[in-house]
Amino acid sequence: QVQLVESGGGLVQAGDSLRLSCAASGRTFSRSVVGWFRQAPGKEREFVASVSRSGISTTTADSVKGRFTISRDNAKNTVNLQMNSLKPEDTAVYYCAAGTAMSNVPAAYAYWGQGTQVTVSS
């Protein structure tokens, strides 16, 4: 079992940066892949990025490539999402999730955090 808690969201202006953190507890975290997803009002949950168990392999959605970077620190049981050059269309609730295989599909992840709101004003 893995418990996840996101933090770092907030209200920023377009062009600003934010760093989201996902703190995990549970003995299986280091054996889990982790993904970040986001969901805007009235829209489906959207894949943002994922990171492998070791942290060496990452995947990033085309919509955020070059602006967002995912990383993990297994010693601290954390996964971070560095978000630069934020745009109003990045506004959403951001969720981290843990699973057994890297995927851009929400159903592939068994454990989810409660989410953190990111709002980008123009």
Can you describe this structure?
- By secondary structure, the protein is an all-beta fold.
- Helix content is 0%, strand content 52%.
- Strands 2, 4, 5, 6, 9, 10 and 11 form a seven-stranded mixed beta sheet that branches. Strands 1-3-8-7 form a four-stranded antiparallel beta sheet, with no helix packed on it.
- A hairpin with a 4-residue loop joins strand 7 and strand 8.
- The chain is globular, with a radius of gyration of 13 Å.
- The model has no long low-confidence stretch (mean pLDDT 96).
Which word captures the global form? Answer: globular
Helix and strand content put the structural class at mainly beta
Strand content: over 45%
Distance between the termini: 40 Å
The number of helical segments is 0
> Which stretches are poorly predicted, pLDDT < 50 over at least 5 residues?
none
Biggest pleated sheet: 7 strands, mixed
Order of helices and strands: EEEEEEEEEEE
- Quick check: average pLDDT? 96
DSSP E strands, number: 11
